[in-house]
Amino acid sequence: AALAGGIVSGLVLAVAQSIVLLPLLKRAGTIAWAVATVIGRTAQWFIVYMLGMAMVGIVVDKEIPTVALFFLMLALTGAFGGLALSYPQAQVLKARANRSRNWLVANAVGPVVTALVVGMTLFVEGQNNTRDYTTLLMAIITAIGTAFALLDLLHHPLATAEWQQSLIWDGADREETLDDTVLGSGLYGHKR
């Protein structure tokens, strides 16, 4: 069940991300990205399923060591799940940009924060009141983190990056700031 769910979920995620990344990665890069996403998402689902099944029977009392262990297990589940998805994707990015490790971190943050929020809800409320919007919460947090990571990667391409020719950053062709400028006024043009 986890394998089939991971493949289907991976295909949906791969199509959505590939549509967004097609102008940047072109066809070959987008296909590699889609394959990496399906592999990573399937591994993510399997890891979360296996760790979740291992934690099903855990009863946590209010003592600090058991609560700390519970939150550690939730954080590790989120981290391993996020890394499982992002590692294959980072390999696709590694061939195109410096700092591809940032992609790993950005994808681990959303699942870890979401796992801790759900854990806090379980601990305080005794039941999962966030169940209806847990996926949305994780998607929003992960989207914010990966947006910053993607912008950073796009700013630090290797010579082999497909977007090298199509993206021109505002100010990339700007001349150096003049020495006699006040508060960056050299950015507005030369004095006449």
Q: Any overview of this molecule?
A:
By secondary structure, the protein is an all-alpha fold. It contains four helices and no strands. It has helices at residues 2-55, 64-94, 101-125, 134-155. The longest helix has 54 residues, at 2-55. The protein is elongated, with a radius of gyration of 21 Å. The termini are far apart.
Tags for this model:
192 residues, mainly alpha, 0% strand, elongated
Content-based structural category:
mainly alpha
Tally of DSSP β-strands:
0
Helical fraction equals: 55-70%
Helical region count? 4
Q: Kindly report how far apart the N and C termini lie.
A: 71 Å
H and E order: HHHH
Brief overview:
By secondary structure, the chain is an all-alpha fold. Helices cover 69% and strands 0% of the residues.
